[in-house]
Write a structure and sequence with these properties.
Blueprint lengths: L3 H18 L1 H23 L25 H9 L19 H7 L4 H25 L2 H15 L3 H12 L3 H27 L3 H8 L4 H37 L11 H9 L8 H29 L1
Helix pairs in contact: 2-12, 5-6, 5-8, 5-10, 6-8, 7-8, 8-10, 9-10, 10-11, 10-12, 11-12
Protein name: ABC transporter permease
GO biological process, one term: peptide transport
Subcellular location: Cell membrane
Length: 306
């Protein structure tokens, strides 16, 4: 009984400490969630809200973006409907294309491919992971050895070779990335399935005479999917980097599709001439988006662990 006040004080101190440390992760989670939501919105409506046609060059070639001192005046002129001249918030590239419009439209390619690839790999990897965790040893071993085979080669090099051989269509890129990311979900789901199979509710279902397949699909798989879905929110960011990287080296989306990697590659030659903006703004868009998905995924993981 004499230890009760000390234990209560220790718990209170821990709660206060955890509460004081919580705001920063929570803010990062909310920031990540907002970034994810914005990227998904732009994926759907981005090409329709651009101020300029993303495929039609303007008459202004390689115009730099406005300075910070000019932004308030230009913003007021645009909001009041009285701009004196065309406004290019991110400047134009060497072809006269408005960079701001193309950055807004690019999630239709980058985010859509990344999300599509992760949905396919999540579905396929979860089913194969369930199979590896519940099937006979020889079949489980076969699934895991195939997973090892896919992961034995560098992801980017493998993706570049497969996309080049199969064709540079968005569907091909989605399927290629799905193949490369499926082993992640196989291993994660299998580990969770093995953990869930030792839980009491599984033993109770067996005692009621339920078949193993029914138990696996009805109880084990839904509980094992939660960590895989959390992982998917982080892997989308990796897939965005992969998509942009493939396009940067000429093995991804075909021009003139608005795509962040293509924009960086197109502006790379102008950097030595002082034209930094065609590559900077798509690069920032990639960095912010990937950070947002990572922060969102980490926040989901913390909440699931509580």
């Amino acid at each position: 009984m004499s230890d009760a006040p000390a234990v209560e004080a220790a718990l209170t101190a821990r709660d206060l400490r955890d509460g004081a440390a919580a705001p920063v992760p929570d803010r990062l989670f909310r920031l990540g969630a907002a970034t994810v939501a914005l990227s998904l919105v732009l994926m759907v409506v981005g090409p329709w809200i651009t101020p300029y046609d993303v495929g039609r060059p303007t008459d202004d070639i390689a115009v730099p973006p406005p300075s910070l001192a000019e932004v308030p005046g230009l913003l007021w002129a645009v909001l009041t409907g009285r701009p004196h001249e065309p406004v290019y918030w991110f400047g134009t590239d060497a072809s006269g294309l408005d960079i701001f419009s193309r950055v807004l439209a690019a999630p239709r390619a980058d985010v859509a491919i990344a999300v599509g690839a992760n949905l396919v790999s999540l579905a396929l990897g979860s089913l194969l992971g369930l199979l590896a965790g519940t099937a006979r040893p020889w079949l489980a071993g076969l699934v895991m050895r195939l997973s090892d085979l896919v992961q034995a080669f560098p992801v980017f090099i493998t993706g570049m070779i497969l996309v080049t051989l199969a064709g540079r269509s968005p569907t091909t890129i989605v399927l290629t990335l799905a193949l490369l990311y499926t082993p992640i979900y196989i291993r994660l789901t299998r580990a969770e399935v093995l953990t869930q199979r030792g839980r009491g509710f599984v033993d109770a279902s067996r005692a009621l005479g339920k078949r193993e397949a029914w138990i696996a699909l009805r109880h084990v798989l839904p509980n094992a999917l939660v960590p895989a879905m959390i992982q998917a929110s982080v892997t989308v960011g990796f897939a965005i980097l992969m998509t942009a990287g493939l396009s940067f080296v000429g093995a991804g989306v075909r021009p003139p599709t608005p795509e962040w990697g293509l924009m960086i590659a197109a502006g790379a030659d102008g950097i030595v001439q002082g034209e930094w903006w065609p590559s900077l703004f798509p690069g920032l868009a990639i960095s912010i988006t990937v950070f947002g998905y990572a922060a969102f995924g980490n926040g989901l993981e913390r909440r699931h662990a509580r």
